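Pilot study result, target chain (326 residues):
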Amino acid sequence: MSVLEVRNLQTHFFTDAGVVKAVDGVDFALNEGEVLGLVGESGSGKSVTGFSILRLVDPPGRVVGGQILFRGQDLAQLPASEMRRLRGNKIAMIFQDPMMTLNPVLRIDTQMIEAVRAHDKVSAKAARDRAISALSKVGIPSPAERLDAYPHQFSGGMRQRVAIAIALLNGPDLIVADEPTTALDVTIQSQILAEVQDLARDTGTALIWITHDLAVVAGLADRVAVMYAGRIVETGQTDDVLTTPGHPYSVGLLGSIPGHGQRGERLTQIPGMAPNMAHLPPGCAFAPRCFNADERCRTDAPGIEDMERVRQLRCHHPLTKAGGTP
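Predicted structure:
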């Protein structure tokens, strides 16, 4: 069953340098218990997409078009008061920096109990019990004791676990995770990824995992959507996209992963720089950096095309034919 449908989402920033189309016609859907990996370079529009879903984009940015259908309800049209009731309750977000979630001068129990009682009329004891259960789910040892601690008494990995626990407190239908493990060491990262995957499977929570790391997506996501210059250029089942990438940009991202190629082989570098989002080139935005571009790519912007095996590509010359073979 569909939890989220994003249709032609457009989020623009109105600056002195021009209109920055940070998200420019994004479409995707997410089902119960499904994990979608949203990947791309910094500045591709991944985080703005996540913030747009929760209506957290600050001026000079704003959602200027499209629909964000959560359980059939268009979040883009909801009054601010209704959106506040959903945010942190049915829809939650995990930020890259856990201190964006945690107040450094309040104990963990205060913050978690308030997060419960803001959306659910329960006693303080019931809210505390729910907080202990949430901390236990994310692997916090002695959760009842750790509730009395302050954020600075936790390590970075433990703070991130607490932030994830807060996101889970009210049993949300959808969680948007904005690179929450980027600053963590590899061991803690792998533990949190495994726990998040189990939680999505056990509770039916849909998850959008925003990252630039395709290695993380490979072990976590059911489907992957690759973003470039505010648009999704490829989407499909994770194994399909990572095994036979169809868009030249996806090929470049995969080639830049250490250990992806042969031992001693130089990493593949995507030439050039990401485009200025306020002054995008005509045609395909990736054409100036693409090894497969021709004159048509430089003048005519490609639309999204459906391929077999639930694959979609935005490219005039996809490297994957219909049927999934290069």
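One observation from the pilot: The chain has eleven helices and twelve strands. A full batch analysis is planned for the follow-on phase.
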